[in-house]
Design brief:
Layout: H1 3-25, H2 33-43, H3 49-52, H4 54-60, H5 63-86, H6 90-95, H7 97-123, H8 135-147, H9 151-161, H10 167-190, H11 197-218, H12 223-243, H13 248-257, H14 266-279, H15 281-289, H16 298-327, H17 333-340, H18 345-357, H19 363-398
Length: about 400
């Protein structure tokens, strides 16, 4: 077979297997298609398919095909992170800054502390910290992985639960938006390369000036031109961030964060997000699965994943409960909001992909974090659905 034929065979597998598992298995209640796609990526990786059928694995996922898939995955994830940056609603967060600051701070800070404590335990064990990481980078990276909320997946789940446009849904989006800024800020700090600090300072200064110019330009452009200029801006920022020693995904997020969502038609933005998830993100999920590893030992990876899941879930619920007590929320709200903010999936997987790229974590740590992200996301709908029904019942009785 030619490389093109093998590439198309790989694409056939990537698109067919998760769809059939999702549709025939009727997993939507506990595992949306995006989660099944990530799980399929792991199963198609070297730790499962590669171990069971090494000759088949090396034939389909040969270096030339993997290189082609990796290029698609890079662009897919840049688009996704760019859209996530655009969808940040920081103006609403500022209007409700006391509530948003307290809730987002505790929802991020408490799981960050518990996740960092778990990372400190791993420091003393071989095979978990990456070869180029300093202790504090590893601890902060793992801790922040436990604190992440995936804003785009949160939007998808709240659409499914029919709360996105309701007041509580808009509140949750504000909290997640503030946390998103903190997440990428911490990542930029972790990735600071003191040997290339001049380049990074130049990039930040140039970005600030260019962002001012782009904002001025955008409001003067016809609506249809804004999409194309936005993509040019995305590519330029991603290149600049990667050149400076940060990461192209940091640049992609910054490119979206300085663009106002109201410059675009909301239906078109929703359609673009859904189409990116449908058309190209499955390739990213596969490329993520290809990077999983069980080198430390399968049992150890699962034990560490369970420890990180405990730190993540307990920290998020405790932090939001503390915020609810301070702000005087009604009964049931803190638990509902805490579980929805627990959604991780894509943004956390993107986050740990960067940590793996920069050799701050090993493949084994990456695999444990990936399993934790999947488990926390799969818990969301089954846990939240009855809580939401009870909360709606309380609201209807009080009305």
């Amino acid at each position: 077979m030619s490389t093109a034929e093998i590439f198309l065979l790989a694409m056939l597998i990537i698109l067919t297997v998760p769809y059939l598992a999702w549709r025939l298995g009727r997993t939507e209640y506990f595992a949306p298609l995006v989660v099944i796609q990530i799980i399929t990526g792991i199963l198609l990786g070297p730790g499962v398919l590669g171990a069971a059928f090494p000759s088949y694995y090396s034939f389909v996922f040969n270096p030339a095909v993997v290189q082609s898939l990796t290029g698609i995955a890079w662009w897919a994830v840049m688009l996704f992170v760019w859209i996530a940056g655009i969808e940040l609603d920081l103006k609403a967060a500022w209007l409700h800054r006391r509530e948003s600051g307290i809730t987002a701070g505790l929802a991020l800070g408490v799981p960050l502390l518990l996740g960092s404590a778990a990372a400190l335990l791993l420091l003393g064990l071989p095979g978990w910290m990456g070869p180029k990481a300093l202790d504090w980078q590893f601890v902060a990276g793992v801790g922040m992985s436990c604190a992440v909320t995936a804003l785009p997946i949160l939007i998808l789940l709240m659409e499914k639960l029919e709360v996105l446009r309701q007041p509580i849904g808009q509140r949750i989006l504000r909290y997640a938006s503030v946390d998103d800024i903190a997440i990428w800020g911490v990542l930029a700090l972790i990735l600071m390369d003191w040997h290339r600090v001049g380049r990074q300072a130049f990039f930040i200064g140039t970005f600030a000036l260019a962002a001012w110019a782009v904002r001025k330009l955008m409001v003067r452009l016809p609506t249809q031109d804004r999409w194309y200029v936005g993509l040019i801006w995305l590519a330029a920022c991603a290149f600049g961030a990667d050149w400076s020693g940060l990461h192209f995904m940091v640049g992609a997020f910054l490119a979206g964060a300085v663009i106002d969502a109201h410059w675009f038609d909301q239906q078109q933005m929703d359609s673009l997000r859904h189409n990116v998830l449908l058309v190209v993100m499955p390739v990213f999920f596969l490329s993520t699965g290809l990077r999983t590893s069980w080198e430390v030992g399968g049992a150890s990876v699962f034990i560490v994943a369970a420890l990180l899941l405990l730190a993540s879930v307990a920290g998020k619920l405790l932090g939001v409960r503390m915020a609810g007590a301070i702000l005087g929320w009604q009964r049931g709200e803190a638990s509902l909001i805490g579980w929805l903010l627990q959604t991780k999936a894509l943004i956390m997987i993107i986050f740990v992909n960067i940590l793996l790229d920069k050799q701050i974590v090993t493949s084994a740590t990456f695999t444990a974090l990936l399993l934790m992200a999947l488990a926390s996301t799969m818990l969301t709908i089954p846990v939240v659905t009855p809580k939401l029904q009870r909360l709606r019942g309380l609201l209807s009785r009080s009305a």
